[in-house]
Specification:
This protein is 45% helix and 18% strand. Helix 6 runs parallel beside helix 7, helix 7 runs antiparallel to helix 8 and helix 11 packs antiparallel against helix 12. Strand 6 and strand 7 form a beta hairpin. It is of the alpha/beta class and 330 residues long. It is globular. Strands 1, 2, 3, 4, 5, 6, 7, 8, 9 and 10 form a ten-stranded mixed beta sheet that branches. The chain has two domains: 206 residues, Spore Coat Polysaccharide Biosynthesis Protein SpsA, Chain A; 102 residues.
Amino acid sequence: MSLKSPLVSIIVPMYNAEGFLARSLDSLLSQTYQEIEVVAVNDSSSDGTLNLLEQYSQRDSRVTIITVPQQGSAKARQAGIKKSSGDYIGFLDSDDWAEPEFIESLISSLVQEDVDIASCGYLFEYEGSSRATKPWGCDHAVRHEGEAVLRGFYEQDGTSDVTMWNKIYKRNMFRDVEFPSGVAPGEDFCVMTQILRNAESLYYVGRAYIHHAQRMNTIAHKVGYDKKQLAAIRYFLKLETEMCLEHPTIAPAIRSFTIDKMVYAALPMFRAGELNQELLDTVRNHINEHYKEYRSNPYSDKRFRRAGVMIAKSPRLFAAAYSVWIKTLW
């Protein structure tokens, strides 16, 4: 690191986060790397979030607050980037928290390895237990360059690093990146795909620094159809078409990964047992179009591949079996 440490901007979107934002902000403000700004984006919260944020900003000048019309986390992050001043940018969800060495480890890797993105592992935090992940398919440091960045993203058999909040990026990684609104789930996947188009290099540090809270409003617990799910699936397909044209050598992995994400987006509908025909047809038609390739692709997540095959052949049977299948995910 040079004598003048670079400024790192951490964007934290917040919506009705009064009950847990303190843990998130405290973990950032106590980082071993101090040259940071925390841009807290209040997504028009209706609870005491803004009051708490104002208390933090009064105590620590590194906290900046902006309030935006409620449009979801993707647009909140976009607003935070525009407000930020750092040459490097990271994110944290308002209910997550970071280990003290998170920023120091990743910014050191970015500078010393001269890469575009630095990434770390994370822990899923459940009530009373934790589960570690292995992004990029390993538990040791690894460097990817050129198309290997995208290949590593798509060819990870369920361990792909689609999240935005376990990385620090060079600021120019966000050029021409669209942050879609009205898309859920899969906002991170939609944005990360575009970011990785801009990346020539990525360094995974091989250690877990982020604690990702699993709450009852996650996709695993949502029930029923929402138009945002269909919007997400259509956006996935748009990205798939573009990425397959740009990177034909990894097209099978791109298509299989997209189907996994389509299945994931459809889960709340199957949990309810009330199937929206348009969404169902979109998912089934795409699976059946690439059925042989998808079923035999070694890079597809085995859990989602089983679900996708069942959805293609008998969606109502999958709806009936959903409560058993979902236990294989968590």
